[in-house]
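Protein record

Derive tokens from sequence
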Amino acid sequence: SVLFQRMDIDTQDVLEAAGTKWNFLPFRPGLVGGHCIGVDPYYLTHKAEKLGYIPQVILAGRRINDNMGRYVARNTIKLMVANGIDVARSTIGVLGLTFKENCPDTRNSKVLDMIREFEDYGVKVRVSDPHANAAEALELYGIEFTAIDTGHPVEALVIAVSHSEYKALLPHELKAMTRGEKPVIIDVKCIQPRSGLEAAGFTVWRL
């Protein structure tokens, strides 16, 4: 997805084309965290290195995945600047904190990396998640869940986790959560149709 971004190609278009092959496996890019995939490869690489072998492919994959939260954040900021949004005075809404959809587990969530990167830019961040435990998020990460809706709009919206609740939202409902003439939406896992989001007035970016 990082390469396709530089080539100005939508990753989903590539996956759809590749999907015409009968045995294609439709893996999608995203924020790969959690206590399994994001951690277990290091047990193997540690053992490999002790035996004198450098597993470069595994380590390269981890470097890419470990940096993905920051990568998404930086591209969000770039789009906001391109749209003339005053980043320092704006608010970004992050929908989802858990490491995967429809579960309450926030362990090693790469959404946290994205949020911290936004904060480093001095942007205000609102975070909401219908599945995560609010008290746990506050205690463990210092993140207080706040409303992201028509009464609490934002300049940019990030659908960070593909919870069913977010898949069910219509483009105009997402648009109602934003303010300004050129709001930005980041659809990390491509759960919304690009055409619908663009028709609603969003500048769209996705992995």
About this structure: The chain has a mean pLDDT of 94. The first strand starts at residue 91 and ends at 95. Residues 82 and 182 are 10 Å apart (CA to CA).
